[in-house]
Amino acid sequence: MKKHKLIFLTIITFALYFPCSLSAQEKQPPPGNGGIIKWYSFEEAYQMNKKKPKKIFIDVFTEWCGWCKKMDAETFTDPTIAKYMSKHFYCVKFDAERKDTIVLDGQTFVNPNPTSKRSTHKLASELLRGQMSYPSYVFLNEKGQELTVVAGYQKAQDFEGVINYFGEDAYLKSTWEEYRATFKGTIK
Question: What's the predicted TM-score (pTM) here?
Answer without folding.
Answer: 0.80
